[in-house]
């Protein structure tokens, strides 16, 4: 009997070639696994059948969207996760959920191997392989794209045709794209020159800000314990809120990101992202936290948020520190309940207002008007003691 491999399959050319390659070069039975995390794609039935037609012994499609929102996106939101202050981690978040299901299926089917179609230069290979090892160190891994010598697109297409793998007839996109409901990542082609402004054809989820409506759009996002639960008062699931924000923010030209980021493998790469929904949600969530979280907690959390984003970017989703940070983050969210009014206008997302039953904003303390009940007489003594040590230091300096 042949040994088995579970392959992370997308339906695209690379992973289709992977199926045949694993059969021919490694003499394995291939189980193809497709995860739906809200990516734009051909029909799942079509993809399932394509894997079988290409030679897979079994083809499994799993709708992971609810789990993705509940276990992955919700944690990223609570952590206001933005790698290097700009990138909401859409690819880095979708890999661990795939890893979890790959391992589960491999264990259930008694497969010795897991394979993925990542290149040898990116972050995703690390996320897959480190993730699998953290969940089941006994599973062996294969990265065909890193091993085979089909280095150019043309040689890959030639190999595919020679092996009767259907090659898409439609014009190939000049870009490399990864997407799911948290956003869309675009790289390669002309974008590899960081001086070149991205041409309009890289974008799919957002209109050009210049072409966006001349009047702003307002939406109110409701949160309960850190999670989005409504838009304009209408109750919605996390995924529904996200979908609405993707549409509305995208239609107003909001959510585009152009960055040169530091890959884990030591390379700087130029990336374009479209994240209308996730950027809107993170912006609203963070703003609500400013209203309800005590000052020291808010500042401390902001530092830990950066660490969280780095660990997740670097493939450490399944790790003790990352899990401990999740527990810390979760412990801060009980009061993150309330509403944030977002304004979308020609490419910008701004917070127009926020309110919460747990607000720490005290009008009578803040106001300069008549209702003021801040005790300014206490300020004098407070400042005397607060600045005392600097006064001592200044007197010492004078002696130098
Ligand atoms: N640089 C991002 C990351 O590592 C996105 C990579 C997505 N891949 C792509 N084909 N654009 O998380």
In brief:
The protein is an alpha/beta fold.
Describe this structure in words.
The chain has 400 residues and is α/β, with parallel strands linked by helices. 43% of the residues lie in helices and 20% in strands. It is built from 14 helices and 14 strands. The strands form three sheets. Strands 3-2-1-4-5 form a five-stranded parallel beta sheet, with helices on both faces. α1 (13-26) crosses α7 (153-162), α4 crosses α5 and α10 runs antiparallel to α11 (320-330). The longest helix has 20 residues, at 90-109. The mean pLDDT is 96. It binds arginine. Arginine is lined by residues 91-92, 123, 176-178, 185-187, 271.
Please give a handful of descriptors for the protein shown.
400 residues, alpha/beta, five-stranded parallel beta sheet, five-stranded antiparallel beta sheet, 14 helices, 14 strands, elongated, binds arginine
Shape: elongated
* SS content category: alpha/beta
- Main sheet: strands, sense, barrel: 5 strands, parallel
**Bound small molecules, which ones?**
arginine
What is the percentage of strand-forming residues?
15-25%
Residue-averaged pLDDT, rounded? 96
Cross-sheet strand order for the largest sheet: 3-2-1-4-5
Spatial separation of the terminal alpha carbons:
85 Å
Q: Classify the helix fraction into a percent range.
A: 40-55%
Question: What Rg, in angstroms, do the CA atoms define?
Answer: 25 Å
Low-confidence stretches: none
Q: Please tally the helical runs, counting DSSP H or I stretches of 4 or more residues.
A: 14
- Record field, number of beta strands: 14
- Written as H for each helix and E for each strand, in order along the chain, the element string is EHEHEHHEHEHHEEEEEHEEHHHEEHHH
